């Protein structure tokens, strides 16, 4: 099995429940949604134009606009460069576009915990133990729907918030899926009009949590 990889890097998880956790991030290429606010547009804009042919090209250039197919063994070799790491985060792009079960099963056998960051618009192919962070994309281009089974499966829901209407959308989603006892995070969008204050107020009013993308404040990847 070959996986289209945009980047693999070792850093501290900056969002939601695992914040501060040393993690290898496996960023898969491509996205089926295409949000205007996306902070990783390099994974889905200019897709085919920037395809690089070999892993060596990426290694040489460090070209984050490019991507390459990695075999399972090549991904494991990248992870092995960080021997202290015990937690692997699949993100993108949209990692749920790919079947991650074989890779995750090997990682679990090696003692790693796994997490997926997903919009919830694709059927998840992860393991029962994978921590699922669902970040709803409502009214996004292409009008992709969030699958009910993914809402049920999610270990936490992390809502990207730019304006008050996003809070209302989240409330409707929670009502529609009868969500009562999940961890709910509000994540302010990194944009000019900083919506952090709005998120703090809504967190206090609803007993939700704030996910402030710590990595962007402490200037790490
Ligand atoms: C880049 S996405 C990749 C995974 C998946 N496609 C998703 O949206 O969950 C990872 C996380 O970043 C969030 N995100 C994207 N752009 C953001 C921005 N400008 N500010 C804050 N969070 C953002 C997403 O909502 C998601 O929780
Ligand atoms: N430090 C750090 N934490 C993250 N949590 C989720 C991320 C993502 O891009 O999915 C991310 C990221 O890009 N960097
Ligand atoms: S779904 Fe995720 S990766 Fe795709 S455009 Fe939106 S934030 Fe970016
Ligand atoms: Mg990010």
TrEMBL record:
<feature type="domain" description="Radical SAM core">
    <location>
        <begin position="18"/>
        <end position="221"/>
    </location>
</feature>
<keyword id="KW-0671">Queuosine biosynthesis</keyword>
<comment type="function">
    <text>Catalyzes the complex heterocyclic radical-mediated conversion of 6-carboxy-5,6,7,8-tetrahydropterin (CPH4) to 7-carboxy-7-deazaguanine (CDG), a step common to the biosynthetic pathways of all 7-deazapurine-containing compounds.</text>
</comment>
<keyword id="KW-0456">Lyase</keyword>
<keyword id="KW-0004">4Fe-4S</keyword>
<comment type="subunit">
    <text>Homodimer.</text>
</comment>
<protein>
    <recommendedName>
        <fullName>7-carboxy-7-deazaguanine synthase</fullName>
        <ecNumber>4.3.99.3</ecNumber>
    </recommendedName>
</protein>
<keyword id="KW-0411">Iron-sulfur</keyword>
<feature type="binding site">
    <location>
        <position position="91"/>
    </location>
    <ligand>
        <name>substrate</name>
    </ligand>
</feature>
<dbReference type="InterPro" id="IPR013785">
    <property type="entry name" value="Aldolase_TIM"/>
</dbReference>
<feature type="binding site">
    <location>
        <begin position="37"/>
        <end position="39"/>
    </location>
    <ligand>
        <name>S-adenosyl-L-methionine</name>
    </ligand>
</feature>
<feature type="binding site">
    <location>
        <position position="31"/>
    </location>
    <ligand>
        <name>[4Fe-4S] cluster</name>
    </ligand>
</feature>
<dbReference type="GO" id="GO:1904047">
    <property type="term" value="F:S-adenosyl-L-methionine binding"/>
</dbReference>
<feature type="binding site">
    <location>
        <begin position="12"/>
        <end position="14"/>
    </location>
    <ligand>
        <name>substrate</name>
    </ligand>
</feature>
<dbReference type="Pfam" id="PF04055">
    <property type="entry name" value="Radical_SAM"/>
</dbReference>
<dbReference type="InterPro" id="IPR024924">
    <property type="entry name" value="7-CO-7-deazaguanine_synth-like"/>
</dbReference>
<dbReference type="InterPro" id="IPR058240">
    <property type="entry name" value="rSAM_sf"/>
</dbReference>
<dbReference type="GO" id="GO:0000287">
    <property type="term" value="F:magnesium ion binding"/>
</dbReference>
<dbReference type="InterPro" id="IPR007197">
    <property type="entry name" value="rSAM"/>
</dbReference>
<dbReference type="GO" id="GO:0051539">
    <property type="term" value="F:4 iron, 4 sulfur cluster binding"/>
</dbReference>
<feature type="binding site">
    <location>
        <position position="35"/>
    </location>
    <ligand>
        <name>[4Fe-4S] cluster</name>
    </ligand>
</feature>
<feature type="binding site">
    <location>
        <position position="40"/>
    </location>
    <ligand>
        <name>Mg(2+)</name>
    </ligand>
</feature>
<keyword id="KW-0479">Metal-binding</keyword>
<keyword id="KW-0408">Iron</keyword>
<dbReference type="InterPro" id="IPR027609">
    <property type="entry name" value="rSAM_QueE_proteobac"/>
</dbReference>
<dbReference type="GO" id="GO:0008616">
    <property type="term" value="P:tRNA queuosine(34) biosynthetic process"/>
</dbReference>
<feature type="binding site">
    <location>
        <position position="93"/>
    </location>
    <ligand>
        <name>S-adenosyl-L-methionine</name>
    </ligand>
</feature>
<keyword id="KW-0949">S-adenosyl-L-methionine</keyword>
<comment type="pathway">
    <text>Purine metabolism; 7-cyano-7-deazaguanine biosynthesis.</text>
</comment>
<dbReference type="GO" id="GO:0016840">
    <property type="term" value="F:carbon-nitrogen lyase activity"/>
</dbReference>
<feature type="binding site">
    <location>
        <position position="38"/>
    </location>
    <ligand>
        <name>[4Fe-4S] cluster</name>
    </ligand>
</feature>
<feature type="binding site">
    <location>
        <position position="27"/>
    </location>
    <ligand>
        <name>substrate</name>
    </ligand>
</feature>
<feature type="binding site">
    <location>
        <begin position="135"/>
        <end position="137"/>
    </location>
    <ligand>
        <name>S-adenosyl-L-methionine</name>
    </ligand>
</feature>
<keyword id="KW-0460">Magnesium</keyword>
<comment type="similarity">
    <text>Belongs to the radical SAM superfamily. 7-carboxy-7-deazaguanine synthase family.</text>
</comment>
């Amino acid at each position: 099995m070959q996986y289209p990889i945009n980047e693999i890097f070792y850093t501290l998880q900056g969002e939601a429940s695992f914040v501060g956790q040393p993690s290898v991030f496996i960023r898969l290429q491509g996205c089926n949604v295409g949000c205007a606010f996306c902070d990783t547009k390099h994974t889905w804009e200019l897709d085919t134009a920037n395809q690089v042919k070999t892993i060596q090209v990426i290694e040489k250039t460090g070209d984050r606009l490019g991507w390459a197919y990695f075999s399972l063994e090549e991904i494991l070799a990248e992870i092995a460069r960080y021997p202290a790491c015990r937690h692997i985060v699949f993100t993108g792009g949209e990692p749920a576009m790919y079947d991650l079960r074989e890779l995750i099963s090997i990682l679990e056998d090696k003692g790693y915990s796994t997490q997926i960051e997903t919009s919830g618009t694709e059927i998840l192919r992860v393991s029962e133990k994978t921590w699922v962070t669902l970040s709803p994309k409502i009214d996004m281009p292409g009008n992709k729907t969030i699958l009910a089974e993914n809402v049920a499966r999610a270990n936490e829901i992390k809502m990207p918030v730019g304006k008050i209407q996003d809070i209302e959308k989240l409330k409707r989603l929670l009502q529609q899926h009868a969500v009562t006892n999940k961890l709910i995070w509000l994540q302010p969008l990194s944009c000019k009009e900083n919506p952090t204050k709005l998120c703090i107020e809504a967190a206090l009013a609803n007993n939700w949590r704030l996910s402030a993308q710590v990595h962007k404040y402490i200037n790490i990847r």
